[in-house]
Design goal:
The chain is α/β, with parallel strands linked by helices. It has helices at about 55-65, 70-80, 125-140, 170-190, 215-230, 250-255, 260-265, 280-290, 310-330, 370-380, and strands at about 5-15, 15-25, 35-45, 50-55, 90-95, 145-150, 195, 240-245, 270, 295-300, 335-340, 340, 360, 365-370, 390-395, 400-405, 410-415, 425-430, 435-445, 445-450.
């Protein structure tokens, strides 16, 4: 009798969400040539640091409005073993557009000889830190990344935390010390931040908190930031550059790698999705910075849909297409934007509302689990931190795929079908449990599935 292998399949399409089934893979003397999706568990690439979302002040504010039963459900959905198992979260240093208003940890320019007297993160204790602690309690292994949107107004050329402006050169050292002190204060609160980016969207002039850094300025600031972190006992914190859209990701990476001091101190690059796919730029950046530096997608969201159910599928497919493309190009981690918003797509202090995979209707007291959340779970639930991407090939570009080998030896392949037609395929692998075995499968129209063996 031919040897059989049972693999698990988790399918989300119009008939259900994450429906689990078993598929039999049977030993085959002759591997078919047509209609194949093939995995190569021995051909390995980057390691995963995690999947997750941003714990903004807006998210913390909405979370605080929930009754206890909804809070428990939210935490389990996002971070629990039976939920999406999020393992990576982003925090803002000071405020961002999804804060209740602009605020700085040091409101006035420090006087000579006074150091950072008056520095305080107390306002984070209202909504941000409580949410972070709930997340951490649900997943004690949760890793944190933090990003600043703007230095304090007194440190900038335009004297405002909003509308761009630049960090004054004479305040590079002070701002670096403030960032280091913020991380130390979070450490004292029990929240270990292991990664930071130097500036959120350094080429964007926004009506909310923003600050411009060209490549020379960002490299110069890195030479202040690294010593400040080391002086605070935080030399282990990884520093990532750029944290903006992909169309110029490679340009900024080239600027850092061309300078020996910057290349030495650079721990990786961060990027967003708002200018389109540009997966080739991500792949080229991975090749440029090498395997030992990190490449993390730190933000993406879709426009506010006002609860229109017809936009859930396009948004969900947008997420999955992005995640697959970035992972295949070499990304180590994926962080969604707001983990939770209210039914108005906020709060947001400049009216820059958007969708989130989880939204809480404060008027009705209902937690809305939207389709993008389930699509993201196809990655985060089955690809664990420490997993390594493996080579996979497909017979058609209509089927978008990525595959990983987890530390326990299990493999997971995610397949996305954004077309209107059923796509039949046969899964096989070059080694491991599926070596010389074939599993007949299909991808229904507008579906996502994770296959685990």
């Amino acid at each position: 009798m031919a040897k059989r292998t049972i693999i698990k399949r988790f399918l989300t399409d119009q008939s259900g969400v994450g429906v689990e089934s078993q598929v039999e893979a049977q030993r085959s003397r002759r591997e078919p040539e047509m209609g194949l999706v093939k995995a190569y568990p021995d051909v390995r690439f980057q390691r995963i640091v995690g999947f997750g979302a941003a714990l903004t002040e807006a998210s913390g504010y909405v979370f605080a409005q929930m009754p206890d039963d909804k809070k428990i459900r939210f935490a389990e959905l996002c971070f629990g073993e039976q939920g999406n198992r999020y393992s990576l979260a982003r925090l803002s240093i000071q405020s961002c557009d999804f804060s209740l208003g602009p605020r700085a940890y040091l409101k006035r320019k420090p006087k000579p000889g006074m150091g950072l007297a008056g520095f305080s993160i107390d306002e984070d204790n209202r909504y941000v830190i409580p949410l972070a602690k709930v997340a951490q309690a649900a997943n004690p292994s949760l890793a944190f990344l933090a990003s600043p949107w703007s230095p304090p107004a007194w440190a900038k050329t335009n004297r405002s935390m909003k509308r761009g402006g630049r960090l004054k050169r004479e305040h590079y050292g002070t701002w670096a010390q403030m960032i280091a002190k913020a991380l130390s204060e979070y450490e004292r609160a029990g929240i270990h931040i292991g990664r930071i980016t130097m500036q959120n969207e350094p080429q964007a002039v926004q009506t909310w908190e923003s600050c411009l850094f060209d490549a020379d300025e960002e490299r110069a600031f890195l030479q202040h930031l690294k010593p400040a972190l080391r002086a605070a006992g935080l030399g282990h914190v990884k520093v990532l550059a750029w944290d903006h859209n992909k169309e110029r990701l490679l340009d900024r990476a080239c600027a850092f790698m061309a300078d020996p001091a910057s290349a030495r101190d650079l721990d990786g690059m961060a990027f967003h999705w708002y200018s389109g796919d540009h997966f080739e730029a991500v792949r080229a950046t991975r090749e440029l910075i090498g395997p030992n530096r990190e490449l993390i997608f730190t933000e993406g969201c879709d426009s506010f849909s006002a609860g229109d159910p017809s936009r859930e599928l396009p948004h969900a497919e947008h997420y999955a297409h992005e995640v697959i493309g970035d992972l295949e190009a070499g990304a180590n981690g994926i962080i969604d934007w707001n983990i939770l918003l209210d039914h108005h797509g906020g709060p947001n202090h400049v009216g820059n509302y958007c969708d989130a995979p989880l939204m809480y209707d404060t008027s009705r007291g209902t937690l809305q689990v939207r389709l993008p959340f389930h699509y993201l779970g196809h990655f985060s639930r089955h690809i664990a931190p420490g997993a390594q991407r493996i080579l996979n090939t497909a017979h058609t570009t209509a089927l978008e795929t990525t595959a990983f080998r987890n530390a326990d030896g299990s493999c997971a392949l995610v397949a996305l079908n954004r077309t209107d037609r059923l796509i039949r395929f046969t899964l096989t692998a070059g080694s491991g449990a599926l070596a010389k075995s074939v599993a007949p499968l299909d991808a229904p129209p507008h579906s996502i599935q994770t296959i685990v063996w």
